[in-house]
Amino acid sequence: MRPEVLHPATLSDALAALAAYGEEARPLAGGTALVLLLHHRLIAPRVLVCLEEVRELRGLQFAEEGIQIGAMVRLQELARSPQIRERLPALALACQEVGNIRIRNQATLGGNLAEADYASDPPIALMALEAILEVHGPNGPREIPIAEFFRGPYTTALEPGELITAVRIPLPPPGSRMTYLKFRTRSAEDRPCVGVAAVVAFEDGICRELRIAVGAACETPQRRPEVERLAVGRPLTEAVIQAIAQGYADQIETLNDLRGSAAYRKRMIEVHVRRALEEVRDGHRSFGADAGC
Amino acid sequence: MAIGRSVPMRDAEARVRGTVAYLADLRLPGMLTAKVVRSPFPHARIRRLDPRPALRIPGVVAILTAEDFNRPGAPRLFYGVDRKDQPVVARDRVRYVGEPVAAIVAETAEAAEEAAQAIEVEYEELPAVFDPLAATKPEAPQVHEDCPGNVFLHTRLRHGDLEAGFAAADLIVEETYTTPPACHVALEPHGVIAQWADGRLTVWSATQAPFVVQETLAELFGLPREAVRVIVPPLGGGYGGKGYVRLEPLAAALAWKVGGRPVRLILERSEEFVTLTRHAACIRIRTGVRRDGTLTARQVEVYWGAGAYADITPRLLRGAGLVRVVGPYRIPAVHVDAYGVYTNLPPAGPFRGTMSFEGAWAYESHMDTIAHELGMDPLELRRRNLLRPGDRFCTGEVIEEAFFLECLEAAVRCVGWDQPYEKGEGGRRRGRGLAVMMKSTLPRSRSECRLVLWADGVLELHTGTVEMGQGAHTALAQIAAAETGIPLERVQVIGPDTDRVPYDATTSASRSTSMMGTAIREAALRLKEEMRRRAAPLLEADPEELILQGTGVMVRGRPEVWIAWEDVLRRHGLEALEAHGVFETQGGLDPETGQGIASPHWHQGAGACEVEVDIETGKVRILRYCAAAYAGRVINPALATLQNEGNVVFGLGQALMEQILFDQGQPVNANMSDYQIPSLRDLPEVLESVLLESPEGSIHGLGEMTLPPVAPAIANAIFDAVGVRIRDLPITPEKIWRALHGE
Q1: pLDDT tens digits for range A47-80
Q2: Per-residue pLDDT averaged across B73-92, rounded?
Q3: Which DSSP string corresponds to chain A?
Q4: In A174, B169, B178, B597, which residue has its Cα 20 to 30 A from A110's Cα atom?
Q5: Per the CB < 8 Å rule, is B669 touching A191?
Q6: Three-class secondary structure of residue B609 per DSSP
Q7: What angle do CA B675, B678, B680 make, to 5 degrees?
Q8: Mean pLDDT of B483-489
Q9: pLDDT band at residue A1 using 50, 70 and 90 as cut-offs
């Protein structure tokens, strides 16, 4: 049966619709994942609550303390936004690496997070950026730090009837440099075999704070604070970089899939954590003229 | 002149805008939807099949099972090109995951879907075998009762004294190469609409072989050929996957069961992966060579994993499966043993570059191994051994048109083979590779066409050649225009429709431009002769005195005595003037020795590339690729170049990423997210195309020539860069990384 599609214009209408239909309803954002699930009959909801017209879910807001991204903002918009590219290049890079332009023009950041595909780029960058998810549901609004959001592949901390409404990203400390590296083993449109996001705050060449998130090689994007701390208070020397890369490779439990074996992924984590840190240390990654096309 | 001009493909804009009417766009009154119920097991006995729960679902019209074929007047259950081993729907046994066990016809897709779930089938699982080599072992489960050992055909090629050849060698190199099953991934899936009316069957099918479909259906239903009509709308790609007979028997049987209403069966993407695959091939190749690089003997043993049904494999094994695995070399002694092997996987069949892809993967990688062991430049080794005009191939036939070396040299020129080369240090190393191939086309096949000149000056070309996006109808119209002198914009292409156009064997093996093109030339000659005969009394001259000029006829030496073609027709009271053209190739190989004529002419292509390997990850980047093909005479340079470039992109996917993965016979990546094909961004940074022409050359097909060299050229470049030899496709980063890091 084809599901009925509802088009609420406000957040409260959307939440009400989700509450009314309960498990028989699914929210529809960009549809790049959901429509495939429908097509393959992996889900069969009676109602789809289309979020396209919900105005509270739109827009980018830039403030002193951070950036707020509406859940329905398209990945391509994030990849192309001059402010995002300027202030949060790791996020812009991660969004620009997703699929192809047709996917990015359709997929939304909220939908991407809610799907919780383990092999996806934006969640890895958001993990390193310590994003906070704003969520609304039958019991009102709440915030979920991204580190607590992913519970497993395709599994999140969202309760029934809850919607991600926005993603808030605190601005990284001054003097920060960041990057996102995607490693593909098949086509240029493939999901990552390994994704690494790095955010490092420097002060006079000394590393004040370091955040590394690794994903796609494991069930959820992950950070290892105890390994990150190896860099704090030190310059990012080869030895420090190697120790961190090794630490991530050793401590992350990797998985097997069509993009690579678990053993291969361990080594690819090591290589790409190292490369990400080298890039951040050298600080020369910039957007090319054709980036995102 | 209409030949040699880059006129745009006739339906290019319509294809891009989405206005081409594909099979899926066809809507017939009262049309029903079909859905196939497929086996979930790779090998099982069907213990019970109960369609009744499905029949009770509203909207379900009929359910076809093997039982229906026992009824009086029923079609035959089994079909096949050579071995009639494949049931339209499984009777008591299933042999691969995805095999049809029943089919539903319903008013709506939803009802058909629901019914497919409701059918009750009880299976008893049987042991299964998936690897072609393992299938030949005595302890292997038997896929067909009548085929112990699972080898349904063993063909041989015997040329020269093999023992003496190896005895004369200073070095003998032996290697094994494999290629996995792959999916054609035509953008348009397989689809058929079938309808019975007044004892006549009409089939609209996305097929590359309308006349084979017609013949097979006529045979299955015990009808004269004329009682079956096959109409082919424009295809959205074929690549061999729509060659021969696919869904048509099932759709026709469903239509027969419902009697009268048209039945439409269109596959979903996932079903494409279990409908037809490339062969899983295992090739053992052993070559003797003298220290100076002269080849003395070659022995090739090929196991062609054909899946659960033989399909076209037996026919291929009597020609292509032997001669396409040897290589374009002068070798005094060659033995080939080709085995067609049943396994519990979906049937395998034609696949762009059929068997040449697998063959070249083995023999061209192998040639570089030989060169390496001899300490010889790979180009030099080939120079010494490539077939030259007048040389004898291992089939005993003399090769007259031989441009293998020219192709290879044109390709390597683009990568500066004779220049000093810097492979780089540190984490990224560069390397260069080359490969060349020869491919037979179809011997003993026929193409016919009809030219109809209407009184209003429109020329119709009636042809069975299928337009599948390759631009065949454009190129054929150009040939018709050039051969008749009629302006290209007045040439219309009609067909394929078996009621309206004369016979053509198939649109495959890169044969259409060459063979149908020659038939068109024949027809044009006859049409012009007829025109002269008709014009002669009107001009009060002898037909021999008349020459055709433009779209008129004039008396030689007297241009003022002239009559337009239209007027010739009008004055004879003719509505149209018709001429028929036929072109047929001969040949074939002796079944015991593989000696004879394998091909009326040989497809020749080469490739050279430069790659960069990331040592830490095994990832390969193609920096530059040059594809060179012998084209004879080019009809449409733009379309020819697109074919050539398309070969590289297609080959790149086969080389680096494409493979249908099976876990105990279950396909695990039967969708476009898990089965990856190259995107535009995977193209080499520089992609060059060279088409070698010769003034007196004939027309050569170009749809495949430069595809088979892609995988070995890349593998050879990787070897050059990092010293790692990959022998099992696809060449994934992880395979290179494992070879580099000894894990």
Answers
A1: 999 999 999 999 999 998 899 999 999 999 999 9
A2: 95
A3: -PPEEE--SSHHHHHHHHHHHGGGEEEESS-TTHHHHHHTTS---SEEEE-TT-GGG--EEE-SSEEEEETT-BHHHHHH-HHHHHH-HHHHHHHHTSS-HHHHTT-BHHHHHHHT-SS-SHHHHHHHTT-EEEEEETTEEEEEEGGGTEEETTEESPPTT-EEEEEEEEPPPTTEEEEEEEE-SS-TTSPPSEEEEEEEEEETTEEEEEEEEEESSSSS-B--HHHHGGGTTS---HHHHHHHHHHHHHHS----BTTB-HHHHHHHHHHHHHHHHHHHHHT-----TTTT-
A4: A174
A5: no
A6: strand
A7: 145
A8: 92
A9: low
Q: Residue B189 and residue B199: Cα distance in Å, rounded?
A: 29
Write down the ipTM of this complex: 0.95
Q: Which residues of A touch B679 (CB under 8 A)?
A: 100, 187-189
Q: Which of A258, A260, A264 sits opposite B661 (nearest CB)?
A: A258
pTM comes to 0.96
| Contact (CB<8Å) B656/A186 | yes
Q: Note whether B509 and B603 are within 8 A (CB).
A: no
B676·A186 Cβ contact <8 A:
yes
By Cβ distance, the residue of B616, B668, B679 closest to A188 is B679
pLDDT digits (tens, 9 = 90+) for B529-578: 999 999 999 999 999 999 887 778 999 999 889 999 889 999 999 999 99
CB B304 within 8 A of CB B347: no
Does residue B672 contact residue B269 with C-beta atoms inside 8 Å?
Answer: yes
CA-nearest residue to B114 within chain A is A1
Q: Nearest Cβ partner of A187 from B270, B679, B734?
A: B679
DSSP letter for each residue of B318-360 = TTHHHHTTT-SB--SEEEEEEEEEE-SS--B---SSTTHHHHH
Decide: residue A274, CB within 10 A, 0-12 exposed, 13-18 middle, 19+ buried. Answer: buried
Minimum Cα–Cα distance from A270: chain B residue: B616
**Mean pLDDT of all residues in A200-225:** 96
Instruction: Identify how many contiguous H helices and E strands chain B contains and give both numbers.
Output: 19, 34
* DSSP output for B387-447: --TTEEPTTS-EESS--HHHHHHHHHHHTTTTS------TTEEEEEEEEEEEEE--SS-EE
Pairwise CB contact (< 8 Å): B681 & A189: yes
CA B38 – CA B410 distance, rounded (Å): 49
Contact status, residue A236 vs residue A207, Cβ threshold 8 Å: yes
On chain A, the residues whose CB falls within 8 A of the CB of B680 are: 188
Residues from chain A that touch B678, judged by Cβ atoms under 8 A, are 187-188
Report pLDDT for A292. 35
Q: Taking CB atoms and an 8 Å cut-off, how many pairs form between chains A and B?
A: 48
Tokens for B160, please give them: 């020269």
Residue A284 pLDDT: 54
Cis peptide bond N-terminal to B138, omega within 30: no
Among the partner-chain residues B110, B617, B681, the one whose CB lies closest to the CB of A183 is: B617
Per residue in A121-179, pLDDT (tens digit) is 999 999 999 999 999 999 999 999 999 999 999 999 999 999 999 999 999 988 899 99
